[in-house]
Amino acid sequence: MGHWWTRNIIEPGKLPLLLALASFVLTFVITRIVVRLIRAGKGPFGNVKAGGLHIHHVVPGVVLTVIGGFGAVGSDRHGLGSAVSAVVFGMGAGLVLDEFALILHLDDVYWSEEGRKSVEVVVVTAALVGLMLSGFLPFGVNDLTEDELQNRAGVALSIGLNFGVALLALSKGKARMAIFGVIVPLVALVGAIRLARPTSPWARRFYRRRPRARAKARLRAYHHDRRWAGPRRRFQDLIGGKPDPEPVRPLPGRS
Q1: Which of 83, 162, 216, 220 is deepest in the core (most CB within 10 A)?
Q2: What is the Cα–Cα distance from 216 to 225, expressed in whole angstroms?
Q3: Pick from 243, 204, 222: nearest CA to 112
Q4: Rounded Cα distance, 21 and 214, in Å
């Protein structure tokens, strides 16, 4: 265990990344527990206010992210300062991304359906950092041999091809596959080959005069969403809490 730790974490300089990931996940989990207790009216916790203004935890999150980021840039990669900065940065990032939906909508949508985006972004971020920690590098550079790495043209070509495949998957409406494809190119390749989602830019451009392709894309998207929407919502509710029910809108009055 000690040999593996030294060879795979200490020597490559991955300890700050590991500490940042651990503090990021731990901060998010603790934050969600606290806000769910506040929501349920349990425990000694309460909303932070200053002069009647509700201070969202994205505010201290931004401060910690800035401190940790600049601290990491200005410290030695293998020193104690780098490790401390990584922990501070991870804590700040956890607080910020926990309210990603608030930043996106510029509205307090924490317990609404839109608030699910925060949980999704946190899970995706943790997964991507975990892949990098495991040895995967963006655009598949880790798949190149030593001779290929020394050839700058080969590296640039590999990055360009992988980036293009990720963009193709994104244009087909496969955002998650495109994001993960930046780290694992095979994922983006699968998304680029498969049918585009019916509302994607690719479908609007290339399926416009192909009714059979449009119908097939709609059918596949319907079955995919029906199969995975329920499990995805339950997973998000387990991590972040169930959103508030949508208010019932009254029917318009008859004239």
Answers
A1: 162
A2: 14
A3: 243
A4: 41
Q: What is the 3-state secondary structure (H, E, C) of 188-251?
A: HHHHHHCCCCCCCHHHHHHCCCCHHHHHHHHHHHHHHHHHHHHHHHHHHHHHHCCCCCCCCCCC
Residue 138 CB burial class (10 angstroms; 0-12, 13-18, ≥19): middle
Q: 94 falls in which pLDDT band (50, 70, 90)?
A: very high
Average pLDDT value for the chain: 85
> Is the pLDDT at 68 greater than 90, yes or no?
yes
With 80 as the cut, is the pLDDT of residue 36 above it?
yes
Tokens of 118: 């925060």
Burial 114-135 (b: 16+ CB within 10 A, else e): ebbbbbbbbbebbebbebbbee
Calculated CA dihedral for residues 154, 156, 157, 159, nearest 10 degrees: 120
Question: Hey, which residues does 54 pair with through a beta bridge?
Answer: 49
Tokens of 193: 């080959």
List the domain boundaries for the chain: 1-135
198 token code pair: 């019916």
Residue 255's pLDDT band (cuts 50, 70, 90) = very low
